[in-house]
Write a structure and sequence with these properties.
mainly alpha
């Protein structure tokens, strides 16, 4: 089998990073390289042609997940013609929904990777990207009446608890209660 073109190699790398980003949010950083490569439709041996280590892939996949989150915020502002309050309300409604609860692979990297980043304990690039992403998300949620970090903590806690109690009436109640608390007007 011959060498792949540079364009094909770049496409392969993009596909692996995209797949890893999804699987990290769904399964955590303990997902195996073999499972990532299989899900990307590639062989395990191909991994080493693209990445120096699993940690290097985790770094890129984490950056991709937070890039998607930032794009989602930008798209929300664009959709609501720059009306930040309306965009924030829509984001809160989507974030604290059963669909988001049930779709970790496409969901928020803050919630999905929190435990793994806490266990990391080091100064990895993924942890740096994660920390920056949390700060940016909190800043985006900030309003004149509510602190963004408080709003993010409420959203994150509610999402994690609703995922942990999925299948029980409590799960939906957690989402509803947090959504109402964050969108109540004085």
């Amino acid at each position: 089998m011959g060498r792949v073109s540079q364009a094909q190699a770049e496409e392969n790398r993009r596909r692996v990073v995209e797949t890893a980003s999804r699987l990290l949010r769904e399964q955590g950083t303990h997902v195996s390289v073999a499972d990532i490569m299989k899900a990307a439709g590639m062989t395990h041996g191909g991994f080493y042609k693209q990445f120096a280590s699993k940690e290097a892939l985790i770094d890129e996949a984490t950056a991709r997940a937070f890039g998607e989150l930032a794009q989602h915020h930008k798209d929300g502002l664009d959709q609501y013609a720059g009306q930040r309050d309306a965009a924030q309300r829509a984001l809160i409604d989507t974030y604290l929904s059963a669909e988001h609860r049930d779709s970790a692979a496409e969901g928020c990297p803050v919630a999905a990777l929190a435990t793994d980043m806490a266990r990391d304990g080091g100064e990895s690039e993924a942890r740096r990207v994660y920390t920056q992403g949390v700060g940016d998300f909190a800043d985006w949620l900030d309003t004149k009446d509510q602190d963004g970090l408080t709003r993010l903590c409420t959203m994150l806690g509610a999402l994690v608890l609703s995922r942990a109690t999925k299948g029980s009436p409590l799960s939906e109640e957690i989402l509803t209660t947090a959504r109402e608390a964050l969108t109540a007007t004085d």
